Amino acid sequence: MTETLGIVGGGQLGRMLALAAARLDVRVVVLDPTPNAPAAQVSNEQIVAAYDDVSALADLASRCDAITYEFENVPAAGLEALESGGKLRPGRAALAVSQDRLTEKNFFVSVGLDPAPFRQADSHADIVAAASELHQGRSDGEVIVKTRRLGYDGKGQARVTVDQLESPTAQDTEDLHEYLGGVPLVVEKLVPFDYEISVIGARGLDGSVALYDPARNTHEDGILATSTAPSGADGDVVVQARQATTDLLHGLDYVGVMGVEFFVNPDGSLVVNEFAPRVHNSGHWTEAACLCSQFEQHVRAVTGRPLGNPRRHSNAEMRNLLGDPLPTATDMTSQGDWMVHLYGKGEARPGRKMGHATRLTGPA
Ligand code: AMP
Fold first, then answer.
1. Right CATH number for 195-363 from 3.40.1130.10, 3.20.20.70, 3.30.470.20, 1.10.10.200?
2. CATH topology for 4-88?
3. Cα(50) to centroid(ligand 1), Å
């Protein structure tokens, strides 16, 4: 049985993984460039080093029985050092697929899932051609243009119509490729969905799968605002979402927890948006409403333990606390029915995730 777990990244996800690991008597070593990072505050040790510091990553690997990460943009240089001992979970294939939106969408198609119709684009002319093709020339058709790499929380994206692209009036539409940094892009057809859900799924070393109930998510300014379970989706939608998540877990020969985001269309069909090869913000409610949280589940999976029971014992609503959360958090704490979780981040900045709170809203 594994006794020391290494976590690359010391933010709030690492912190919640470390807390769950402590309950299983698993030691944690965190690697993060910032001393006393949120996860390091609750871990046994921290290696203060950059994510691409190959000798520090090799040091981490030598000290740990298993290595995981709390964010998917681990630089490729560092990965070699981590992969060599066969201790990295989830493995490199899952990371590689999730790091590039084009590879990710092609992978979805390869396992029989439906992403939004998409095209690759490497110039403004490509974007214009892709948008027009996706909408068969309809001038009011909308697309979302996204950077293939390093986008998160709605960053590195632009929403435009075919018309705006063909008759540009603003700096962004004149050369959208340059506006988005001149990097490789994907162009997606805008999906007129009804609502968004996500599924947190886990796969163990032995190939067993555990799925949490889908949650319904709302966003503000591109950042997750609330997650509610149950999602209120029809039984058929829930079955599809669970099956799609299972297909991804097996298709990637995955070990650990992943979060999969879906758009639900008015006719009940599903569009898969993206997956994250880690615990996910839309699964934070599981710490209050399930016997085994997503954090414990991930620690169980990557350390080779049997998966825990993902059953939801209560309905729940999770709200992110952004910017300076303390007045809200104090208010929620005084109300008594919110489970408040603060991340130990020193400095509050607008839009920064400082904590979250979960309220149990009735028996499951
Ligand atoms: P993403 O960074 O891909 O998760 O996108 C951020 C948010 O933008 C999503 O949660 C959706 O609300 C919206 N969005 C992204 N792609 C599409 C799409 N193809 N159609 C409609 N809305 C989208």
1. 3.30.470.20
2. Rossmann fold (3.40.50)
3. 31
Q: What are the start-end ranges of the E strands in 132-208?
A: 142-147, 157-161, 185-189, 195-203
What 3-state class would DSSP assign to 182?
coil
Which sign, positive or negative, has the C-alpha torsion 186, 192, 198, 201?
negative
Centroid of ligand 1 to alpha carbon of 40 (angstroms): 32
**Cα end-to-end distance, the chain, whole Å:** 34
What superfamily does domain 117-189 belong to in CATH?
A: ATP-grasp fold, A domain (3.30.1490.20)
Banded pLDDT at 153 (limits 50, 70, 90): low
Ranking 161-165, 247-251, 275-279 by mean pLDDT, the lowest is: 161-165
- The pLDDT tens digits of the residues spanning 45-96 come to 999 999 999 999 999 999 999 999 999 888 877 777 788 778 999 998 899 9
Concatenating the DSSP letter of every residue in 266-280 gives TTS-EEEEEEESS--
Exposure on the CB side of residue 132, measured as CA atoms within 13 A: 12
Is there an atom of ligand 1 within 6 Å of 144 CB? yes
3-state SS assignment for residue 196: strand
Q: Output the pTM of the full model.
A: 0.95
How many angstroms separate the alpha carbon of residue 247 from the centre of ligand 1? Answer: 22
* pLDDT value of position 76: 74
